[in-house]
Structure prediction request, 308 residues.
Amino acid sequence: MADVSRLAQVRARLELPLARRASGLLEGRHRSVLKGHGQDFDDLHLYAPGEDVGDIDWKSSARAGIPVVRRFVRESNVNLVLVVDTGRNMGATAASGEPKADAVSFCCALVAYLARDRGDRVALVAADAGRIVQLPPRASTQDLELMLRTVEKQLSVDAPASDLNRALDRALNAFQRRSLMVVVTDEARPGPEHERLLRRLRVRHEVMVVAVADLSPVGVATVGTTAGPAAHRALGAVADVDGTLDLPPFLRGRVDVAEGAAQAVRARRESVVALLRTLQVEAVSVTGTDDVVPRFVELLGRQKRARR
Prediction:
């Protein structure tokens, strides 16, 4: 990737209406995150068309006979924490055919861009089985660019194996102040082995999960329906990054193999969704960099609606 501003790359790809919507939804998340933690009531004003109906104070509206919105004084320096899985599975190939590292990096850059635009701070916890990196909350462009480059350097097929629990445990113990935590991993995670830490993290913080979908190793993946294990292509062959799969090229075109793989992936995906639903953690799956912005905006919207 060219050595240019990561935040500038986000700005170039982020349409203004989407940027405004994301910023507004992020404001809504802050209200939820900071409820009971120092956010001050400001005043009431009449509802205007286009405002979020979720902000209407229905009791005050009933008394006044017209829709009324409750306004608050925004508390600055809110922490957003990027919790990034940097195992070698994150250096494989995404469902779009791009390196998963590109989707991970762009997702982190999007969070940093939105936070900087609002004057909030972003912290980082990036970990795998052999490494752990923690950077404190920062808001300056220079510090955020350094953070994004740090994430990129950790993403490789030569990295240690994934260990999402290390990242979750560090995030739980390192950040006492209630924060909005964005966990970035792949579609095979989180699993049952991560439930205990995720549950504890969810009690203390707001938690969202962005999962990067894998390329199908047996054929072209259908977006939203099929994907495969963390695989990468090399000269037409497909190999698992953990070394447990070496798929001959002639098997990739077989319909029965593709259908079996798709069924296994659907079952795995449903188990992840069920776990996160139990924990009341909202999540989205992205297929590549083009998918990140709309899916993250969707995630913010769903998270806000879930807290009403």
Remarks:
- The first strand starts at residue 40 and ends at 46.
- The chain has nine helices and eleven strands.
- The CA atoms of residues 30 and 175 lie 16 Å apart.
